[in-house]
Amino acid sequence: MGCSGPLPTELVTKRRRLCVFLLQMGGPATLADIEPFLVNLLSDVLPAPRLIRSLLARLIARKRAPRVAPLYQKIGGGSPLLRNTAAQAEALESELNARGYDAKVLVCMRYTAPRVGQALALARRDWSDATWIALPLYPQYSLSTSKTSLDDLCAGMSTPEMTRLVSVPAYPTDDGYLAALVECVREGLMRFSAEERARMHLVFSAHSLPLSYVKQGDPYPTHVQQTVAGVTARLGAPPPHHLAYQSKLGPVKWLTPSTVSMVQELAAKGVKEILVVPVSFVSDHIETLSELDLELKELAHKAGITHFERAPVPAARATFIQGLAGIVEHALPTDN
C-alpha cells in the first residue's frame, strides 16, 4: 500500500527539512462545483468496469447534482472541507516546526483544488531538497480513498522524486488519533445528563464501502473496527455501542448495517438517547453537517429518539495535530 521506498543516504541527512502532502478528498466549495466534484469522485468509487465508469459517473453526477445542491445550501452554500483541511495543515506545520523541523505542509485534494499538480509545483519550487511525506487524512486505509490519493500523488512524480517520498498508508490505531477521538466522544457525552448517560447508546458511524472492494481485500472494515475497539477500550466503561455505515451511493451492495437502520432499530427497542460518533471523518463536511446533523437527527426524532447528539470530529484540536506530527516523525528513517 502506498509508494514509499528507502531514502538515499544523502537525503537522510536532511531529515529536519520536511514537506508533508496532506491528502484529503476535497469537496465543492460552491454550488457550481458540485457536478464536476461528483464526476471525479464517482469515477473513482463506482464499482463498474473502467471503460464505462467515466460515462456512468457523468450520467449519475448530472442527475445527482441538482438533488444535493439544496443540502449544500443548508450548510453554507458549499463544503467547508478545504477551509477545515487548511486549518489542519497550518496547525500541523506549526507543530512540526515547534518540534525542531523546517517543515511545510501542503494541502493536496483528490477531487477539487488544490490538486496534485499545484501541490507538487510548490514542493518542487521551494522544497526540492526536503524529505517528502504523504499523509492521508483517511485514518482507515481503503482502495477507494487512501490508495487513489496516494496513487494520484505518485503518478505526478518523477522517479527521482519518488525516492524521497515516504508514505503513511493508514493509522487506525495510532495513540494520538484515538486520544483525539476519545476527547470527541467525551465532549459528546457531556451534552447528556448523568441520568441520560446511564441509559444512552453510542452509534459509531463510518463512511460505507461497496462490498466489491471488501471482496478485493480492502482492509477498511477491519481498520474501522480496530478504531472503534481502541476508542471504547480507552473510554473505560462505555455505554452500549454499535458500528454502522453511512453515505451509500447507487444500487450495489454496501457495508451494513446502515446508520439510518441502526438508529431506527434502537428506537424500536425503546432507546431514547443516542450519541452518534463520526469514526472515519476527521473534518466536518456534508456527511457530518447535513447527513448526520440534519437528516439523521430528524429521522431519529421521528423514530422516537428524544435526545440526539453528534460528537465533534477531531478537526484541528491539539491532540489530533500532535498525533499527526508523531505519525510523521515515526515515518521518517530511524537512523538519523
Question: In a nutshell, what does this entry contain?
Answer:
The protein has helices at residues 9-12, 34-45, 50-74, 81-98, 116-126, 143-155, 159-163, 175-189, 194-197, 211-215, 220-235, 259-268, 286-303, 318-331, and strands at residues 17-24, 102-109, 131-136, 165-167, 201-207, 241-246, 273-278, 307-310. With 336 residues, it is α/β, with parallel strands linked by helices.
If you average the pLDDT, what whole number results?
93
- The total beta strand count reads 8
Strand arrangement, major sheet: 2-1-3-4
What shape does the CA trace take?
A: globular
Which range does the strand content fall in?
A: 5-15%
* Helix-strand topology string: HEHHHEHEHHEHHEHHEHEHEH
Specify the biggest β-sheet. Answer: 4 strands, parallel
CATH architecture of the domain at 175-310: 3-Layer(aba) Sandwich
Query: In the CATH scheme, what's the topology name of the domain at 175-310?
Result: Rossmann fold
Q: List segments where confidence is low: pLDDT < 50 over at least 5 consecutive residues.
A: 4-14
Class by alpha and beta content: alpha/beta
Backbone CA Rg: 20 Å
Separation of the first and last Cα atoms:
24 Å
Q: Helical element count?
A: 14
- Report the helical percentage: 40-55%
The first-level CATH class name of the domain at 175-310: Alpha Beta
